[in-house]
Amino acid sequence: MAETGIGPASRPLVEAVGLTRVYGEGETATVAVDGATFAIAEGEFLALIGQSGSGKSTLLNMLGLLDTPTAGSLRYQGDGVSGLPKAERAQLRNQLIGFVFQFHHLLPEFTVLENVLMPALVAGARPAEVRDRAIETLELLGIVGLEDKNANQLSGGQKQRVAIARALLNRPAIVLADEPTGNLDTTNTEAVYDLFRTINRELGTAFLIVTHDRSVAQRTDRIIEIRDGKIIGDVRNEYLTGGS
Ligand code: ADP
User: Fold this and answer.
1) 169: domain CATH number?
2) How confident is the model over 189-208, as a mean pLDDT?
3) Strand order in the sheet with 71-76
């Protein structure tokens, strides 16, 4: 492993400077994220690690434009996002960011295709416009043919693939994955990791993967470590290049 520098592109995908989030006030205040400064380049594939309570979710929520920092600045593709009105932030989030969680949050009574299309339809897309892209995405993830099944008929691994397809529908610049393999066995963990890699290579999507799983973290290109809200490590992983 070697020290990492700022991403190679002159304009990083993400640029966080002194990003801070304090919950509560006065004596009961908790500094959940404390002055996080880092950049993520377009197409980077990295892990965020840290113990429970270290600030990972809080950081992810800010990067995902789901929460606003108390202090510091956040830029996406050069543009500041912290001060944007709620509706604009939501729009930007919809365009730029895909989310994958530990639990897939699929709607069990709806079909795979409906689940994949749902966020796009809620955001105002016309079904005909996004249907082909949804099928293409299912193909990419190796689950084409399942589109008419109900989500509750799928295996755990298949459900997570559908959740990944849903996250990719709008072709986000980055996927923020919060313990995406935390609920899966070893075989499915490997499969999800491989899929992320494939998507990263084929679509150029950046990935930030929050994980407790050292074997997953060690196979990313870079590991950021957080402790007590502070970034205590940011190293480039030299494993890889040519690996799966
Ligand atoms: P992690 O994801 O690494 O487990 P979190 O970001 O959830 O860590 O939490 C970081 C710190 O912030 C913890 O001390 C946690 O108790 C606190 N915290 C998280 N969310 C809230 C909240 N909504 N209100 C108050 N404190 C919170």
Assistant:
1) 3.40.50.300
2) 93
3) 30-40, 14-23, 71-76, 79-80
Mutate to test the pocket of ligand 1, among 57, 58, 208, 227 (most ligand atoms within 8 A of CB): 58
6 belongs to a structural domain: no
Tokens encoding 70: 């108390």
Predicted confidence (pLDDT) at residue 2 exceeds the cutoff of 90: no
Task: Tell me, yes or no, whether 29 lies in a domain.
Answer: no
| Largest distance between two CA atoms of the chain | 56
Q: Which domain holds residue 232?
A: 43-56+87-241
What digits encode the pLDDT tens for the residues 130-147? 999 999 999 988 899 999
Provide the token pair at 103.
Answer: 């639990």
Q: Tell me how many domains the chain contains.
A: 1
Is the beta carbon of 29 within 6 A of some atom in ligand 1?
no
Statement: residue 106 has pLDDT above 60:
yes
Instruction: Report the separation in Å between the CA atom of 97 and the middle of ligand 1, taken as the mean of its atom positions.
Output: 22
**Res. 82: pLDDT tops 60:** yes
pLDDT at residue 212, as a whole number: 85
Task: Decide if 118 is inside a domain.
Answer: yes
Measure the CA–CA gap between 170 and 119, rounded to whole angstroms.
Answer: 9
